[in-house]
Structure formats: structure tokens, C-alpha cells
Amino acid sequence: MPKGNDIFLQNVSKVVVFIILAFALYLFFTGHGSPGGGFIAGLMTAGALLLLALSFDIETVRKVVPVDYKLLTAAGLLIALCTGTGALFFGEPFLKHAFGYFDLPLLGKTELHTALIFDLGVYLAVIGVTMTILLTIGEDN
Amino acid sequence: MNNWVAAPLLIPLFTAVILIFLHNKLMLQRWISLFSTLLNTAVAIGLLLRVHEDGIQTLNMSGWKPPYGIVLVADMFAVLLVLTASVVSACCLAYSFRGIDEQRERHYFYSLVHFMLAGVNGSFLTGDLFNLFVCFELMLMSSYALIVLGGTKRQFRETLHYILINVLSSTLFVASIAYLYGATGTLNMAHLSLRIAELGQSGPITAVAALLLVVFSVKAGLFLFFWLPGSYGAPPAAVSALFGALLTKVGMYALIRTFTLIFYHEAVVTHTLIGIMAVATIVLGGFGAVSQTNVNRILGYNVIASIGLISLALAVSNEHALTGAVFYLVHDMIAKALLFLLAGVLVAETGTERINRMGGVLLHSPLLAWMFLIASLSVVGLPPLSGFPGKLLIIQGSLESGSYIIAAAGVLLTLLLLYSLIKIFILGFWGDARKERNPEWKQPRKLLASSAPLMLIIVLLGLFAEPVLPYIQQASGALSDPSVYIQAVFKE
Question: Which residues contact B325 (CB under 8 A, 6 or more apart)?
């Protein structure tokens, strides 16, 4: 890939990346009751990062998001596993989730559920795996 | 509900994830890995005693009732295999402290092994056909990485075969699951068994059963084994041992589980097919083992031939044969791991994999030689060792059913394996060294010490077969009467 010199692509993606990330966030939070969730939000986020890598280059992405994606994967898996195992300490079967309604400032009455934490784990793991794969393939040449 | 049923799955998963964070701290990685497998062994023993006293333990994950949610089922058969897998993996891990180079250890070797163990234990414990597929994939993905880790030319070539054949069979697996779901509307194994018993095993369902037979046969190395001897020889000995002991046996477990619990109505079609494939496997695998001169390939063909023997028992499916199959399966996991580990020491000692270039090992490493001989004799099934009771029960079972060809195949197998393993002993251990020895080579005491527990189990399992037999019979009893399993799943 030639070192980033496509002005149109670069300027458009600077804006579009944020739109994609915002949509990913929306998908992540809407995922409990309607289509969406950690998996698809993770793919979206990875897609945004990939767009950056295509329009600039991999080094730029590394500089902008200085994360070790392998560790991100592991962190995601750990969060998901711990959420599933947490149920054991309350005498419930493995993977059982809990939820409740809380009055939060600004948001009002909100449903909070532990499945969201599990989803956060999935989200991080998906970003980690996708980016590890893409960056490994991208580095080959 | 018993949450301990999920523990053999959770312990390796947690270990694998934690080890990713620690991938540069070698000593810490080693000790955590070993501790985790020992902990798993302890949990498995606890489960075994619990199942022996209180019958089959189940866990409805997330609290969803059986036909709707995914259920984990710990019956005696599954728990015995989980226990054996934990013991074998503990020894293979201890072996790999010395037997695996640092470069591989830094590149997530231990993590991958634990992910694979999670897949293996999950496959044994799950009571849901789709979940079985997921656990298979977890196990296979990690095995892809383990087989290529290190990146030698031979590993790349064999990995390509291995991945292609497994991706193909996994695709068929999902397809047959989809057909089955379309026909019966459920994927819970106990529920599937009930539904198919009600509907009758019609032609299409038997066709799906045959498709599943192909899928599991590829994984187990039953008849469709052309990929196996090469692939299992490519990675280092510790990995070969894990593969030889665990992966094909998971395929075999899936075969036994599905064809005793779900598809047992049209035995004339499916079980005859299994019988034909088993006899063909024994003939081809046995002659393959005899014809090779490469140690790892001989052992690869040995793995295949033993799978043939266990499938003979499945084809007969009476109580003696199934008891023999469970016993032999447990024995075979331990014995094959031991043989592969010792072959690793042998290859390191002589610097070659070809037995006609070895020689004289008996003089330099008598301990290795005698351990190898005992392991070989136990694989063949010589009486005081652990291969004997299983083999005897399988042949007895097939004679009771009047399947004389099957009994004859079992005896033929014994002779062929005896010849192939004694050939290694005669050419490799006797005589003078045919090759310059590496002067810096030291006695690999630590490697031998880590395989010694397996050796001990082989001897003890043979000598004390009688006290072990009630556990084995409880396993085979539940296999020959599907209603035990079904009631345990739906009791809550």
C-alpha cells in the first residue's frame, strides 16, 4: 500500500470513523433486547480501525490506538468468563444472569443487567481477535 | 443442579486466559499449567465419586430447563474420560517443561494446550449436539495452532492437510446438525433420543446418522484416517502425545455417545457399517504400522488400529463389548500418550526418526528401553497390563453376539501391533548404534520421570482391574440403556 497520500479518503475517513464508532456504541447498548450486541459492535469497531489502517497505514493505527490486541482479547475473555462464573458464588447455575431497575441521574429509570458485562467481554475479545488477524496479515508484506 | 460439572471446563479456560497475560514469564507459566491440570484431576476424581454414589449429575446452564437450554451431563463414561484426559495432560505438560523449546513456550504454547483441554472436556461433558460442535471447534482451533507452532517446513505441509480435512468435516457436521434439527426440532441429545424413539428412525434420519458417522470417523481416524499418521508426527513429542491421546478419542467418544444414545434403532444399517469400517481400519492401520520405518508414523498407525478395535465393540454393542470399549478407551489414552512421549525421548537420543538408522539404545538408556517395552506390551494387551481386560471383554462380547469376523479382526490386530512395536524394539534398541551419537547427550531423567506416572497407571490398571471394573460397568450400563441418561437429564 502506498504511504497515505489519498487526501479525499483520509479526510472522509477521519469523519466516518467517528460515525462508525458511535453506531458501534449504539449497537452495543441496544443488544440486550433487540438486534445488536457485543459481537457485532466489536466487528464494527474493528471495521472503523481497519478503515483508518487502509486510508493511512498500520503504523498510524498503532500510534492512535496503542493497545496490544492480544492482551485485549485475553482481557475480554477474562471479563466474560468472570461474569459467567460469578453466578456460582450466589448458588445459581453457571452463566445465570441478574438484572434490576435503577434510577440513574440523566437517564431516569434504567434497566441494568449483568449480561451487559458479559457482552463487554465479547466486545473486547472480538476487537482483539479481528485486529490481531488483520494486523498480522497486513504486516506480511 | 451441580455446578461442579462445569468445573473441568472452567479451570482450563481460566488458566488459558491468565497464561496469555503471563506469556513471557516461563517458570510461572509452567507451574500454573501443571497446578491447573492437577486441580482438574482432583475435581474429576471428586465428580467420579459423586457420580458413582448419586448417579448422573447435570447442570442446566443459565438455569434454562433441558430441551430449551444447554445442559452439561456428567455420566460415568464422560467423567472417566475427563479424569483420564486430565491425568494424561498433566504428564504431557510436565514433559514439555523440558521437551518444548523456549520459543514455543513464549508463543502461547501453554495457553493453547489449556484451550484445547477446555474443548476436550467440554466435548465429553456436553449434552447438546450443537454445543458438542462448538467444543470440537475450540479443540480443533487450538490444535491447528499447536501443530503449526514452531513453523518448520514439515509442520506447514502437514498443517495444511490437517486444517483442510477438519474444516471439511466440520462443515459436514454443521450440515448434519441442521438436517437433524429440521427433522426433529431439537438438539438436546436426550430429547433427540426421545423424539427419534417416538417417530421411529426413518430413512432420512438414518441418512443423517450415516453423515454424522462420516464426520466423527474423520475426527476419530476410523477408516478415513489418511491424514493422521503424517499430521501427528509433525509437531514435537509432547504435542503428538496430547493429540494421539486426546483428539481421536474425542471423536471416538462422540461416535459411541451418538450411536448408543440416539441412533440405535437401525442397527442393521448403521452398526453394520461401523463394523465394516472398523475391520477395514484394523487391517489397513495394522498393515500400515507394520510397513513403516518411521517411529512417529508407526505410532500414528497404532492410534488408528486401536480406534478400529474400539469401533468393533461399538458395532457389536452388547454389554460386555461396551464395557470392554470403555476400559480400552481409558487404557488407550494413557498408553498412547506414554508411547508418544517415550518415542520423543528415543528420537532425541538417536537423532533420527527412522528405526533402521537407530540401534544400541538398550546399552545407553536401559530405563527408556524397558519403559518402551512395557508400554508396547500393554498396547498389545499382554495379561498383567491394562490393555488386556478391555481387549478380552471386546472379543468376548463379539463372540457372544456370534460376530466371528469381528472377533477374528480383534485377534489379528493384536498380532500386527505386536509385530510393529517389537520391530521398533529390535531395530531401535538392540544391536550396535548405527549412527554417531551426540557426545553432549545426557540421560533425559526429567523427561522419563514425567512419563513415569503414566507407566505406573498402566501397570496398576492392569493389576487392579477388578476394583476399577464397577466404575467401568456403571459407564457401560448407562450406555446400553439410554433411558438412564434421558431420565437424569429431564429429572428436574
Answer: B256, B310, B313, B314, B390, B394, B476
Looking at the DSSP bridge assignments, the partners of residue B74 are B57
**Helices B129-148 and B153-184 sit at what angle, rounded to 10 degrees?**
170
**Residue B346: partners with Cβ closer than 8 Å, 6 or more residues away:** B295, B358, B361, B368, B372, B428
Q: CB-CB: which of A73, A88, A93 is closest to B62?
A: A93
Chain A residues with beta carbon closer than 8 angstroms to that of B3: 88, 93-94
CB contact under 8 A, A71 and B20: yes
Q: Is the ipTM of this complex over 0.85?
A: yes
Candidates A73, A78, A81, A95, partner chain B, best to mutate (most B CBs within 10 A): A95
> Cell 443459565 identifies what position?
B62
Chain A interface residues (partner B, CB cutoff 8 A): 70-71, 73-74, 77-78, 81, 85, 88, 92-97
Closest residue on chain B to A72 (Cα):
B21
Taking residue B283's Cβ as centre, other Cβ atoms within 10 Å add up to 16
- Burial degree of B362 (CB within 10 A; 0-12, 13-18, 19+): middle
CB atoms within 10 A of CB B104: 21
Cα torsion angle, B44, B47, B49, B55, sign: negative
In this complex, the residue of A70, A77, A93 whose CB is nearest that of residue B61 is: A93
What pTM, to 2 d.p., does this model score?
0.93
Q: What total of structural domains would you count in chain A? A: 1
Distance from CA of A54 to the nearest CA of B (A): 28
| A79 chain-B contacts, CB cut-off 8 A | none
Local structure of B377: helix, strand or coil: helix
Strands B71-74 and B57-60: antiparallel
Domain containing residue A98:
4-139
pLDDT per residue of chain B (492 residues) written in tens, 0 to 9: 788 999 999 999 999 999 999 988 889 999 999 999 999 999 999 999 999 999 999 999 888 888 888 999 999 999 999 999 999 999 999 999 888 888 888 889 999 999 999 999 999 999 999 999 999 999 999 999 999 998 888 899 999 999 999 999 999 999 999 999 999 999 999 999 999 999 888 888 999 999 999 999 999 999 888 888 888 888 999 999 999 999 999 999 999 999 999 999 888 889 999 999 999 999 999 999 999 989 999 999 999 999 999 999 999 988 899 999 999 999 999 999 999 999 998 888 888 888 888 877 888 888 888 999 999 999 988 888 898 999 999 999 999 988 898 899 888 888 999 999 998 888 888 877 776 666 666 667 888 888 999 999 999 999 999 999 999 999 999 998 999 999 999 886
- Kindly list the residues from chain A whose CB atom is less than 8 angstroms away from the CB atom of residue B1: 93
